[in-house]
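User: Hand in any protein.

Assistant:
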Amino acid sequence: MRKFIPFLILYFLLLYTPANAQLIIDSASFQVQTGAEVDITGDLASAKSLPDFGKFVFKSTSDSQSVNMNGNSIPNLEIDNSHGVWLTGDLRTSNSLQFTNGKFVIGNHNFSIAGIATVSGMGDGKFVETNGSGKVFKEVYADLNSFEMPVGAGSIYRPVFLTTSGSNTNEKIGVQVLDNASTNNPPFINNYLKSNWTITQTGNTGTLNVVAKYSDPTDVSGTESKLKGYLFNGTDWSSTTGSINTSSNQISFPISIASANITAMNQFVVAKAKVFLQGAYDASTGLMTDKLRSSSLIPLTDPYRQSPYSSYFTEVNDAQTETIAASVLSDQLSQGNNIVDWVFLELENPSDNSVLETRSALVQRDGDIVDIDGKSAVTFNNIAYDNYTLIVRHRNHLGLSTDPSSYKPLLSEKQSTAPLIDFTTSNSLYGGSSAHGIASDGKFVLWAGNANGDGKVSYSGLNNDKDYIFLNILNSNSGTNVTNTYSIGDLNLDGKVSYNGLSNDKDFLYNNVLNGVSNNKRTETLP
């Protein structure tokens, strides 16, 4: 066999024979006879494309290998290394890619497959791993019919099949798969895939249809039958154009945007709501105080599942306990986004007032009710898009509800277009003006004072809240204050329970909630 290697910087190269050192090709010519196979067992670096004839096989039995083509081409590439081959510079294959053994790991670099190039041999443990920012690109010169993009993650093959029509010579489709739940997922999803695919496209003059194949049961968290295909457009999730086949483990979507993230999860709706708690609200600032947070008293786990609150709050279709990271309770850039406390939400069918699902969530100083990440609107899982009644309750405030006879907000999966259910100003609240307090700035607030959790606020008579604080929390000792506490008796949410002295809870109940009338009462009014 003839070899033409003028001005070649070559440490070691043999045709048909393994090379055990690094091969570096600088600016010289390098020719390989038609049908020849170049077995490389070291690393490869090249400043130019390799010859169109012959096949280049990465074949080491003792260690991983690296290849840096600086954006140039290897026309026929074979991966035959159980330790893996790592891409350290962009690469293109113009004729063929074959997997015999091991993965091709591209990291933060891009790997392009030419329009006429073929791929073969891929499967579990044998694929292109997109474990960084790099993507596998398919150049499209003619319509594709289920072209198989050989991508995977970890040890699992998770290919994407591309079908196009109306394509042109400038079209490129990029694919990346990661073996984790999408970072765009809502923060509290019960059933989802532990894998996701990002699809990008440029130069598309027609249509692109994508089918992504997941691994069952490896990729499934929860119940597979509850999954729906979802596409994220950079702002919102949508399931309306996609489909999922749980028998073949495939998610299908037409994609018309430049970049999309696809995965599967249970159907959900987003509730965007706002509420003020009377005990914490300061009309002079238009914000609630966050003394519980600043005193590190807010629990990281849903308090409504624990005593004494579990006696008054019943979870419905919410078996997974809400838990937050400690960072959620950190100081936020905007003080209005600091967390005040946990709240309890109920989603009802407005036709019969049956509770469909409950969620424990967080409320910020500015009144926004957010999910366990401290910033997103709250999701309700396995709920169809429809009109609902939303109720917000608190552990020692009286609950408040939208009025199903006059306002039934339409909830969907789109956070950007979700209606704001504003319990601080709405005229469509159940029970009218008596169902809530009105602060000095005119904002509606949830009545405080429900220390015994019975749905009523009272200062005198049987089972009144004043006596409950005195007898049950302070143990009949009016001179004792319980400080640094997260307690149902802390009506003004300042982190302590007190019966006498400045800012005590007894006087807050009498003056602020009951307007200085001892026999006044407030009663929770819900549909």
